[in-house]
From TrEMBL:
It holds the Pfam family Cytochrom_C. This is Cytochrome c551/c552. Gene3D superfamilies: Cytochrome c-like domain. One of its GO terms (molecular function) is heme binding. Residues 14-99 form the Cytochrome c domain. Binds 1 heme c group covalently per subunit. Keywords: Electron transport, Heme, Iron, Metal-binding, Transport.
Length: 105
């Protein structure tokens, strides 16, 4: 199981910068940004919504792969079936770690 840790620390074999790079490689940044709304909610808002929920990383990884509707407004999250379970879990843990990081200036 992957451990959730603070940004800058090593988690899931990488750093917080690796999480952002993975999000870019998997085209997440086409709809999401860390601190600003684009098509979908900002990653930091997702982290805040799921703060303290032990099932959060599994839920987020599942939503990435299967999609969802009505959780953040009218625009659905399309399923990303080509995203591996491992990458979905790494992205979920990175997103959840953002609640502890200061906002970028």
């Amino acid at each position: 199981m992957l451990a959730l840790c603070a940004p800058g620390a090593r988690a899931a074999g990488g750093t917080a910068a690796d999480g952002l790079a993975l999000a870019g490689q998997r085209q997440c940044l086409g709809c999401h940004q860390v601190d600003a709304r684009r098509v979908g909610p900002p990653f930091r808002a997702i982290a805040e919504r799921f703060q303290g929920r032990p099932e959060a990383s599994g839920h987020l990884a599942r939503v990435m792969r299967e999609g969802s509707r009505g959780q953040w407004g009218a625009i659905p999250m399309p399923a990303q079936p080509r995203l591996s379970d491992v990458d979905a879990q790494r992205l979920a843990l990175w997103i959840l770690s953002l609640r502890e990081a200061p906002a970028a200036d």
